[in-house]
Amino acid sequence: MHVKILMVLLALLPIGYSVAPAWVNTGVNLNYSAGSDAISFTVVSRSAEDIHLQLYTLSTDKTTHPVENASADSGQFWFDTSLLSGASPGTFAGAYSVTDAGRQSFAGTDWDTVTLQSTVSGVVTTKVLDRSTGLMLKETFSAAGAPTVTLVKYYIPGISPAPPQENSTTPAQPPANQTPPADNQTHPADNQTPSQPGTPGNGSAQPGTNGTQAEPPAPQSPSAQQKKCCLSGFVLLLIGFAALRKG
């Protein structure tokens, strides 16, 4: 009996000390397909307690700012790596059973994957995760109309080489109008040979002239008072999107 109790306590010990992986930090940008939709996560900031995110959904063109628990065993796109290091089919990782382990390709990269599965209120959730980082690569739900979520592009400082150039979390803002050059600026004569590309001609604005440099748009900041989100909320969000498109 004491041996059984000890085994249970040892199994629960990692859960009590769960923490989000170190890479889940400011600047991370992850883009997922969600059926015919697309969603993007950006980590705005992280503290010992909270992870502040910016979530953009293409179909609604809306941006929200959920907050996750940095000491949980999993989040919307990450899983505690201490629970994955020794995971093999037939074992458990937190509340999930391990159903598969192998290598799979996502977003143009080959990953050493661990597949987890859990059933809550009749809905089966299946996650495909990278073993070494805990990054979520794919997630499916058995609920009718729930889309499959798949990683299509990622930027993780120190892991991926360069930030993504497309699918940013917010639509690009148009540049501010520049001040037109002064009327007394010299223009080339009609019969004058035009200047070559890269070489300023007589009509080119020079540094220090009346041309005004556009100011970059101010970055958005999340609200610190917003309610923490959880995995179940993410599932309901995806199901809601699917229902709206179907309707």
Please provide a written account of the structure:
The termini are far apart. Strands 1, 2, 3, 4, 5, 6, 7, 8, 9, 10 and 11 form an 11-stranded antiparallel sheet that branches. The radius of gyration is 25 Å and the shape is globular. The chain is of the alpha+beta class. The protein has a single domain, classed as YmcC-like fold (Beta Barrel).
Please describe the structure with a list of short key phrases separated by commas or semicolons.
globular; alpha+beta; 247 residues; YmcC-like fold
Write the layout of secondary structure elements.
Blueprint (H helix, E strand, L loop, with lengths): L1 H15 L12 E6 L2 E10 L3 E8 L4 E3 L2 E3 L22 E2 L2 E11 L2 E12 L2 E8 L5 E6 L7 E7 L75 H16 L1
Antiparallel strand pairs: 1-2, 1-11, 2-3, 3-4, 3-5, 6-7, 7-8, 8-9, 9-10, 10-11
The CATH architecture designation is: Beta Barrel
Distance between the amino and carboxyl termini: 55 Å
Poorly predicted sequence stretches spanning 5 or more consecutive residues: 1-16, 167-175, 184-214, 216-232
**Overall geometry:** globular
CATH class category? Mainly Beta
Say what the CATH topology is.
YmcC-like fold
Radius of gyration: 25 Å
Note the run of SSEs as H and E.
HEEEEEEEEEEEH
What's this, in brief?
This protein is of the alpha+beta class and 247 residues long. It has a single domain (8-163, 226-246), classed as YmcC-like fold (Beta Barrel), CATH 2.40.360. The chain contains 2 helices and 11 strands.
